[in-house]
Design a protein that fits this description.
Length: 340
């Protein structure tokens, strides 16, 4: 499996996902500014990978700190957290990991600054390690829901490229394949940035999975033609009632799945579940540049001066979700309200 994001000799090494599938290129983030830019421009993307990037960002930003006491060091961490946290608002994993790093520093505040730096690096390595284990658990648990010969529809990229490796929704497909099940996958292209057409296809092809690429607006027809057995997607943030923020277009798929009696599954680590929010109403939706809509892969496709609305995510109400698959098990309605 590919390593989406790693710590190499004091730098954060990431696959530049904006270059895929044409080129497999790595960029090395030597400073927090480069890393934040990589996050904002989706060179690194996907909720769990953003969580890892956030943790490495704290390490990167503090490794050369000359703070003399913990009070100064803490201020530096807080500044870093605000800076990194302002890059992408929807995926809760980013805020989860930043908070975890801050709390870990606080827990060790009586140690020497150099020691705290080492401890923070260890914590970031722990986060990446935990993600790898977590994805395999989600894969194992979720694969129990897939039958040999089934066809899955997925949206965006919830695979190895969106995590440390293996993926969440795609990890389930990889595990089902490892178990000997023949699974076919319809991949939504996922406008505007085409994570499905560029990234999910690239990943699934490497794993030898049979795939069929469709435009987003074909999903309803393929469901009506009874080509889809299950829909399986990732999540950027899940509220306590199960309302789920994921890549724009997910809500449409969920409504279509309900209409066509197709089970709709969300797969995510528990760190994507935001129990502080009772419902999806409070999930912030990232608004992105209009050029992503007026252009397609760098080529202008709409008239100049056109008004554009470009929400990067949507909220799928819990009533459309059959189950949410996490490393802690499969949650069904009422989801996390009473079960946690
Ligand atoms: O804008 P992106 O590419 O970061 O959006 C990613 C998604 O919507 C994924 O489905 C989600 O983060 C789950 S990743 C396991």
């Amino acid at each position: 499996m590919i390593n989406t994001i790693e710590w190499v000799n004091g730098e954060v090494k990431i696959i530049d996902q904006t270059q895929l599938p044409q080129k497999l290129e790595y960029i090395y983030c030597k400073d927090v500014e480069t890393l934040r830019e990589a996050i904002s421009s989706l060179k690194v993307r996907g909720a769990p990978a953003l969580g890892i990037a956030g943790a490495f960002g704290v390490v990167l930003g503090t490794q050369n700190s000359s703070a003399r006491d913990y009070a100064d060091f803490k201020k530096e961490i807080e500044t870093l957290i605000n800076y990194l946290g302002s890059s992408r608002p929807t995926a809760v994993n980013l805020f989860w990991s930043l908070k975890r790093m801050k709390e870990y520093a606080e827990k060790n505040k009586n140690k020497k600054i150099e020691e705290i730096k080492t401890i923070l690096k260890k914590e970031a390595f722990k986060i990446i390690q935990e993600d790898k284990i977590c994805n395999r658990r989600i894969g194992k648990i979720g694969a129990s829901l897939l039958e040999d010969g089934e066809t899955i529809l997925t949206h965006c990229n919830a695979g190895a490229l969106a995590t440390a490796d293996y993926g969440t929704a795609l990890g389930i497909i990889y595990k089902a394949k490892e178990e000997g099940k023949r699974i076919k996958v319809y991949v939504d292209e996922t406008r505007p940035l085409l994570q499905g057409a560029r990234l999910t296809t690239w990943e699934l092809l490497q794993e030898g999975i049979e795939i069929i690429l469709i435009c987003d607006n074909m999903a309803g027809e393929v469901m009506r033609e009874k080509k889809i057995d299950k829909v399986l997607v990732g999540a950027d943030r899940v509220a306590a009632n199960g309302d789920t923020a994921n890549k724009i277009g997910t809500y449409t798929l969920a409504v279509l799945a309900k209409e066509n009696d197709i089970p709709f599954y969300v797969a995510c680590p528990f760190s994507s579940i935001d129990l502080s929010l009772p419902s999806g109403k409070a999930i912030p939706i990232e608004q992105r540049d209009s050029a992503e809509v007026t252009e397609g892969l760098g080529k202008r496709i709409a008239p100049t001066g056109i008004k554009v609305y470009n929400p990067a995510f949507d909220i799928t109400p819990a009533k459309y979700i059959t189950a949410i698959i996490t490393e802690k098990g499969i949650f069904r309605p009422p989801f996390f309200k009473r079960s946690v």
